[in-house]
Amino acid sequence: EEDRTELLETAQRLKQSGYDLISTSETASFLTRAGVDCRPIAELEHLAPSELTDLMQKHSLAMILNTVVDS
After folding, report:
1. Cβ atoms of 49 and 55 closer than 8 Å
2. What pTM value is reported for the model?
3. Could you please report the per-residue DSSP string of 5-38?
């Protein structure tokens, strides 16, 4: 949850700059509750490789931000 809180300011700035956001479902839910519109996608390990490739080839994906969970 702490990672998501740190991500919130960055997400808000990206939206204000005109970016459309996509994220995993839990992060999308967090961002939406915080007032940042975000489209959910499957976790990367469950996402078909073609889906990610399609997003990149269509230039629909400008960057990937990844939060790391300490174990």
Report:
1. no
2. 0.73
3. HHHHHHHHHHHHTT---EEEHHHHHHHHHTT---
Cα–Cα dist 38/50, whole Å: 21
CA distance 54 to 29: 24
User: Each residue's pLDDT tens digit in the chain (71 positions)?
Assistant: 666 778 899 999 999 999 889 888 888 999 999 999 998 888 877 877 777 778 778 877 777 776 666 65
Dist. CA 17–CA 41, nearest whole Å: 21
Residue in the block written with tokens 């999308």: 28
